[in-house]
Write a structure and sequence with these properties.
Two copies of one chain form a homodimer. The first copy, chain A, is built from 13 helices and 21 strands. By secondary structure, chain A is α/β, with parallel strands linked by helices. In chain A, the strands form five sheets. A seven-stranded mixed sheet of chain A has the order 13-15-16-11-10-17-18, sandwiched between helices. The longest helix of chain A is centred in the N-terminal third of the chain and has 24 residues. Chain A is globular and about 70 Å long. Chain A starts with 7 loop residues before the first strand and ends with a strand. β19 of chain A pairs parallel with β18 of chain B.
């Protein structure tokens, strides 16, 4: 104890703006160090455990989360106002992520195991596989998914699956939810200190600069991500930083796709979760004239309370920025202390500048009208990176040029769908060029999210008895491997 | 032209210290921009080309290099003094790298193609594969391998294989070799501007900060790597940096392995190429008493000229640092203006501090003597990261604890071999924890070196005719893929 009074973290109800329950203390530097040190100690055994052992634990975590869903959604609803249906669904998604990673590590393909037997004249026997990074993974929880991108979110599930212990810096928007989730997960782990939880901004800084931390995952704003990157840059030993930051998620509606369904689909995607999705469609290119239909659809929407006061203020600031454009339409204000109103702005393509398309987190978008499809690609080419890009069309051939342009600026391309909603599956990629991600080659959703916490080791002429089972000739775990150049199952 | 006189780059003969041939001008900022812009323009077609087309070009490059080996080795020998046998072998290795990457891209496994078909209730069709980063790769050539880690080295070969154009910042130690290699490669490319070459320190800074550059590969010193990282950190848009920096490559000789062959093997590895290998064994732990045998072996070695004056001076500085230890033995001085003498220093384990084991580039090492195997792991655990770690032993069971400790600090583990010599194969990993690499999950040698220049794209409900062939249901290119969770060939 330094004698200094501890700062406290309060949760707030977005519907009333009032504090919820007792506050939680911010972690001191000593608290953070204790959490990381304990996680590292527990991590030695976890890293050495078999994939089968870890998979069973991940499934136990999934079961534990589902068993407590009745309590979990209520605690989260008080702190986020996201509602029962969404929050129950999100707990199921969170459990599903643990189950997917159990499958991934049992399968073993994630190890990228390769064997090259010795060959004349001078090629030694070389075998390689990926292994967990030797240390603790730091996770910065997001505000907008209190389960799926928070304490027990995809970063934590994938890191535990890889064999890494985790210390999470809780998001201040849902401190009590964070505590409850941590305790549910910890009870299902062989050692509860494999998952640490710390509160407070300084705790996040201490965490990411701790020498035993070997990588960091982050979901949040560009400014927040830049701040964490700066802290990492100042480390003596650099570590990889996997930050998912801002994204405007452009949508192109081709002339052939103009319909009232597309307009209502857009309005629904824009306002889902009060627009608080990193995949929210913030920029839509439509044939001139169709903006009126879009506007009418948006007029039929209703806002709601945002997650917290800071995010509500950020939305207001974003609207000010967009105010230089013509207001096309607005929805109805919802209820609640921190409620906001959906708004769409419009500009013709030749007045649009890519700098206008900065993310405005919340239910706001720019509707850019165009006359000529062939003029879109150059404009798209100047956009910043996004997590997603979407085309609505009926004729793939008319979309080819636009598709090519979008494929350079986004990590996921969607046809006749909406970007909100990210399937948790083997093929998903949830990343994209800066500022969508600080590490565009990696994803924070889907099976390959585990790759962030792995690093290869090569074994040259290594004795069979010291080799991991995954690399022994007999392949006792029957994992997919490349042997002497050819894939084998 | 700014009117400012251009700075010139001279090559020098390490045997005489005299300049070789005419100097080459340093690239101006405008020159660098022109090279990058031209490479980016040529890169659009290259990126869109099929793997089969690119593979044929890579093989043509390999043929072209081999066809010019008689000229290439002589130009390089004047600038590096590495000798005919080594340099002919290195040209063959360099050509072999292009051939390996031709195989890798024809195989298609490097794309990590995954298909998840749509499934009830709400899972869309999602397909993912890796694609070339959309821009130019910057490569910083190394001094010590004028072919294999320089203009046409593994970074360039893997980036071209991926579908990226390349601009190389030449190493000032072999400017004329760099020019000749570039012209040989360029003549074999469909567009010579796919490979740019620039000279000069400022050119390197301009290169890595150019907006069209999307990633950088680097082989060199820790201070050089930190400088490039700093330039990248200052970019508006961050890019991945794959730097292979310093490595001490610890070797543990177990009591069972003590033999004159191990001593002579160590001395040969230490002095290979005048110790100018990033995998040079700079730290060896031996049973007490065996250091005398090691010392006798080193006394039988002979030094030679180092690559350039700066490296020779760096070696002298490293010897000063090591001078606090007891000089165990030295070899004979070789001939030539910049010649150096192999030296080994010794200390008992209980006087050894991990800070002593800082890389001294050249034929110098610390021989640490121990009494008790069980005391090694804790000391090894405090070492900085290395590219390799080696054990000499006859009983794998006695090596288990040491092996585990070494596996945390090195990317490649070697049994009864020597770290100098890196096989170019599917399983190789040439990387390791900082400072061995700035990106320990990646390798600069072997098939997976291509992964550094790739980034995934996911396609959701994407029309068949817009999908890359690699992701179409019929698998027309017959590449390995994971379909609905299962690997298929």
């Amino acid at each position: 104890m330094t004698g200094k009074a501890l700062s406290m973290i309060y949760g707030y109800d977005p519907r009333t703006g009032q504090a919820v329950g007792d506050p939680l203390p911010e972690a001191t530097t000593a608290d953070v160090s204790a959490a990381v040190t304990a996680a590292a100690a527990a991590g030695a055994g976890w890293r050495a455990s078999s994939a089968a052992e870890r998979a069973s634990v991940l499934e136990a975590v999934a079961d534990a989360l589902l068993a407590r869903v009745d309590d979990l959604w209520q605690v989260a609803d008080r702190e986020t106002a996201l509602g029962e249906v969404r929050l129950r669904g999100e707990v199921a998604r969170t459990a599903g992520q643990f189950r997917l990673f159990a499958k991934v590590i049992r399968d073993g393909g994630y190890l990228d195991a390769v064997i090259d037997h010795a060959a004349a004249p001078a090629q030694p026997d070389v075998r390689r596989m990926k292994r967990a990074l030797p240390g603790v993974v730091a996770v910065f929880a997001a505000s907008n998914f209190p389960f799926a991108f928070s304490v027990a979110g995809g970063d934590t599930a994938s890191a535990l699956a890889a064999g890494c212990p985790v210390v999470v810096k809780a998001h201040p928007g849902h401190p009590r939810t964070s505590e409850m989730v941590a305790s549910v997960v910890q009870a299902a782990l062989p050692d509860p200190t494999l998952l640490g939880l710390v509160h407070g901004m300084q705790a996040g800084a201490d965490l990411v600069q701790h020498p035993l931390v070997v990588a960091a995952g982050f979901t949040g704003s560009i400014s927040g991500g830049r701040a964490v990157q700066g802290l990492i840059d100042a480390r003596e030993t650099p570590i990889p930083f996997f930050g998912e930051l801002g994204s405007v998620n452009p949508v192109v509606v081709l002339p052939s796709a103009v319909s009232s369904e597309v307009a209502s689909g857009f309005a629904a995607s824009l306002t889902l979760g009060v627009g608080q999705f990193c995949t929210n469609p913030g920029l839509v290119f439509v044939p001139e004239g169709f903006e009126k239909v879009i506007g009418e659809a948006v007029e039929g929407t209703t806002g709601g309370p945002m997650l917290n006061e800071r995010i509500r203020d950020g939305y207001a600031g974003g609207l000010d920025r967009l105010g230089s454009l013509r207001l096309l339409a607005e929805g109805k204000a919802g209820d609640g202390e921190w409620t906001v109103t959906p708004k769409v702005f419009t500009t013709p393509l030749d007045s649009f500048a890519s700098e206008m398309a900065e993310e405005c987190f919340g239910p706001a978008a720019i509707v850019v009208t165009y006359n000529d499809i062939s003029s879109l690609s150059a404009v798209i080419g100047r956009l910043q990176g996004s997590l997603t890009a979407t085309i609505h069309g009926t004729e793939p051939s008319e979309a080819a040029e636009v598709a090519d342009a979008l494929s350079r600026i986004a990590g996921r391309l969607i046809w006749n769908g909406w970007p909100t909603g990210v399937a948790v599956c083997w093929a998903m990629h949830h990343g994209g060029p800066w500022p969508a991600s600080t590490a565009p080659a990696h994803t924070s959703v889907g099976a390959t999210a585990i790759d962030r916490w792995l690093t290869p080791t090569a074994y040259q002429d290594w004795p069979e008895e010291l080799l991991p089972e995954e690399l022994r000739d007999a392949n006792p775990l029957t994992i997919p491997r490349r042997v002497d150049g050819a894939f084998q199952r």
